[in-house]
Amino acid sequence: MKVIALVAASVLLVAACGVDENPGGGSGGDAGSGGDAGSGGDAGAGSPVPERVFGVTVTDPWVAETLPAELTNRLDGLVRAGDRLPTARVVFDEGVDQIFTASGIDALAYVTPVQNISVHARIMGELLDSLFVLDYSVAQYRARACEYRATLGHLVDVWEIGNEINGEWLGSDLIDKLDAATQVFVADAAGFAAICPGFSLQPAEKAQAIALTLYYNGPHNGGVASADNCWEQPEHAMDQWANAHFAIAGSTGTESIKPHVDYVLVSYYEDDCEGIQPVWQTVFDQLGEIFPAARLGIGECGTTLAAQKVSYGQRYYHGMDSSEPEFANMAVDHPRFVGGYFWWYFNDDLSNEPLYDVLQSSLGNPFWAL
């Protein structure tokens, strides 16, 4: 989710960007040119280069129902050579479930709009935005995972079960919530029935992959705040947090969650981090060591600054192929890097022709040709 502010003692939000064009689901399936990525399947350094993930974020999927041409025509314009679809990352709103009933709707409300979008794009479902994770107990987070898999399992290709998971605002029981969701999404029919009483799987459920999104806030630097980082609490620096929770033998993250993770993505809003330009090669080399079987990408990006939208779009979608010095940090030479990017403001920017031209024209560049 888009981070509006990070108040020292409390917290706020942020988001993510990405999904595979042909994911290998958590229950198995073909992972395209990248080999088997199902439920922790090996997509490691020896695998062929995976297909790229060209992603955008859809925060209002009902646009596909009320103004279908406005959204779906834009998605159709992002189909690549060989009829490879873009990936629409659909944000499932807080409270739209059977847990908190104040909204008067539950996951069923998403079936028609997501079905409409799925004709035009692969679907990545964001189970819950990071800002609202604290509002759910572990049991409620598990129940939401049960409800969404049962309701939308026939439409979603990749489940983002944790968004901006190292953010200071997600609470101390975050790993337990991720573990609960993981068990829901990797369970077979019998296991699902045991974990999720009252729910049943879709007969035509897709093979589903699992994604985690981290929040880039600069390096730990020994716990010293500097111009290179923007964390509030040093233990939540992305590199430090990922190591602490997914690189220590015997930990829940390492033993129970990581083996099932197909995609590790990074959410980054440079406007919220003093314009820091990470050397993404270094960032993804580090993540690749922690997650040796996952595909890697940027899971969310964007800006509200109208004057900067085109240049930001160029940075993230063209940057891999750009020779411009200002985009030099965007190049990533890693065998499991798939792209992603997932512009957060795609709904808001549907009529922004210059930005859309940037997104569309990037598909002709070498990085996206694979």
Describe the protein in words.
The chain is of the alpha/beta class and 370 residues long. The chain has a single domain, classed as TIM Barrel (Alpha-Beta Barrel), CATH 3.20.20. Helix content is 29%, strand content 12%. It has 12 helices and 8 strands. The chain has helices at residues 63-66, 68-76, 111-118, 138-152, 174-186, 189-195, 238-246, 252-257, 280-290, 309-318, 353-362, 366-369, and strands at residues 53-58, 87-91, 122-126, 158-162, 209-215, 263-267, 295-300, 337-343. Strands 1-2-3-4-5-6-7-8 form an 8-stranded parallel β-barrel, surrounded by 4 helices. Helix 4 (138-152) links the parallel strand 3 (122-126) and strand 4 (158-162). The two termini are 29 Å apart. Residues 3-49 have low confidence and may be disordered.
Q: Quick gist of this model?
A:
This protein has an eight-stranded parallel barrel with strand order 1-2-3-4-5-6-7-8, surrounded by four helices. It contains twelve helices and eight strands.
Helix content: 25-40%
Order of helices and strands: EHHEHEHEHHEHHEHEHEHH
Overall shape: it is: globular
Using only C-alpha atoms, the radius of gyration works out to: 19 Å
The count of DSSP E runs of length 2 or more, i.e. the number of strands, is 8
Task: Tell me the span between the first and last alpha carbons.
Answer: 29 Å
CATH topology type: TIM Barrel
What key attributes describe this structure?
alpha/beta, 370 residues, TIM Barrel, 8-stranded parallel barrel
